[in-house]
Amino acid sequence: MPNGIFKVTAVAVILGFILLAYVSSPVSAKNPPQGELEIFSWWVGDEGPALDALIELFQSRYAQVKVINAAVTSGAGRNARAVLKTRMRDGNPPDSFQVHAGQELIGTWVRAERMEDLTTLFQSQGWMKAFPPDLIKLIGTDEGIWSVPINIHRSNLLWYVPANLKKWGVTPPASWKDFFKIAPKLRAQGVKPLALATNGTTNHLWESVALAVLGPDQWNMLWKGNLDWTSEMMISVWQVLAGILEYTNDDASSLSWQQATDMVVNGRAAFYIMGDWVAGYLITSHKLRPGRDFGWSASPGTGGQFMFLADSFGLPQGAPNREAALAWLAVLGSREGGDTFNPLKGAISARLDSDLSKYNAYSKTAARDFGRDRIVGSFAYGVVANEGFMNDFAPIMEMFLKHRNPYKAAYAAETIAIKHRIMR
Ligand code: GAL
């Protein structure tokens, strides 16, 4: 090839690469963000202060951006996810939205190719080393990294008021056997042994019971399709749950998780099983002192195990304010971001370098346990199961709350496990 033509071709190729790089625009926050930033989540009311603190931190760096806090109320995001689905389908995505790390993210919007790959952002912010490698795996696929984790929550927790337990002459049950021993004693004193909230949150109780009955190895086997949904073990999960429901409040279906927590605070109930956003609620909204005014332990039969979930935020393709969204994600994933949000939220930071001196007594124990316990993924909050399975599980739980038949529930669950390929 004559020299001149070679040079022209080389320049053309280089220009082509530059153009391609510009058009495909890898994720990185280059230009100072302007305009608006719409943040979509389900953190309103009692969970609002933690999000507000994070938004304040963002605004202290990007005062010129107008933040629109588009939070949709509902425990565990059921309503919010429905609204998000409609908006995504209509081609009207928010700039950044909350999603649980794990199958909830990967099995929906990543599979539908509606998210931007954030690998470049992770690299430029030094996050490949800042977050635990297993967590990065959970928010990634071979094709990219799809969201920025803001926290680690624990789901398998039992909440109580130590002074009340003393008054009633009971201690926190270490196993369900213990629970069934003390429950009649509580009932005889006019106290509900266990508070329960709206039907959706029964999935939460179910996963705590399942972890106790199965143990961590079989729990993991279940989600890899290596444990039959109709096996004796799985039948006994439903049996234990049916037994527990005998000791819960009749008005559960009309209560939010905050109202069920209030039953424990005001002495109507002895215990409540819920994630550690309860700690955030009790400290931030009720101004109670962890370890004094309220106590906690692993839910019965799950000592030494940490069932985790992580909230994260992603960048949908076609976000109207992409640069602002990238700046938001950078704040969210920073050390300061995690340590601003989580002490108010009841969670611990997802980062390995968080400053624990900023956290309350509850979160300090959570950080300790996260470092030493056996870690397993939550079902109710999208770590181990995809959204399709979770949606189909909801009516099975609804029905179970009425018929309380372990066999019916186990066989129904097997059907959806086959449908969603969580089966041998
Ligand atoms: C979960 C979320 C938590 C908390 C909880 C109750 O889905 O991960 O951060 O918000 O719902 O609303």
Task: Characterise the protein shown here.
- The protein has 424 residues and is an alpha/beta fold.
- The chain has two domains: 25-153 and 311-376, D-Maltodextrin-Binding Protein, domain 2; 154-308 and 379-419, D-Maltodextrin-Binding Protein, domain 2, CATH 3.40.190.
- Helices cover 50% and strands 13% of the residues.
- The protein has 18 helices and 14 strands.
- The chain has helices spanning 3-24, 48-61, 78-89, 103-110, 119-124, 127-130, 133-138, 162-168, 176-188, 202-223, 232-245, 257-265, 277-284, 322-332, 335-345, 361-372, 387-403, 406-419, and strands at 36-41, 66-71, 96-100, 140-141, 144-145, 148-149, 153-154, 157-160, 192-195, 269-273, 295-298, 305-309, 311-314, 374-377.
- The strands form four sheets. A five-stranded mixed β-sheet has the order 2-1-3-13-6, with helices on both faces. A four-stranded mixed β-sheet has the order 9-10-8-11.
- α2 links the parallel β1 and β2.
- α2 (48-61) runs antiparallel to α15 (335-345).
- Residues 1-6 and 8-26 have low confidence and may be disordered.
